[in-house]
Design a protein that fits this description.
- This protein has 5 helices and 7 strands; from the N terminus they run βααβββαβαββα.
- The chain has helices spanning 11-19, 21-27, 79-94, 110-118, 147-153; strands at 4-6, 46-49, 54-62, 65-72, 100-106, 122-133, 136-146.
- α3 links the parallel β4 (65-72) and β5 (100-106).
Amino acid sequence: MTVAQLGSEHKGYINWLMTHPGVYSTISDDGSPPAEEYEADLDSGFFLSTAPGNLFIFTPYCYRVYSMHSCILPEARGPGSVKAARECIKWMFEKGGAVKIVGVVCDSDPRAQKFALKIGFNQEGRYKKSFIRGGVLQDLIIYGQEAETCQQQR
């Protein structure tokens, strides 16, 4: 499986995938613009993909620690997306300079929680009542993975 780093020449595709109804509804909150007004900031980090229908975004959290965001079309979800995410995480540790990758998942999204565990993340904590979707204040569960853990999983 080959990891491709997407850039400005892929902006149309990145925006289309991120605003797809099956994706945007899972990554946006009540403060997000309408999908038709959203535009990805391609200077904000690494945009990686292994196949049409998946996109993994790694934005700097602090020095050499990145926050991971997954955008996967409904028809691309399943075992292939788990493998794709693992490959992109491996790429970040080997070529992106990351020493740790973190991510947050809404506590009302058990599918995303399972995905985080399947790709090798460990639950590390919780941000209490820090995400608003549908007018409801919800917790965010913090997940993380260090480079050493990723190497041990291979």
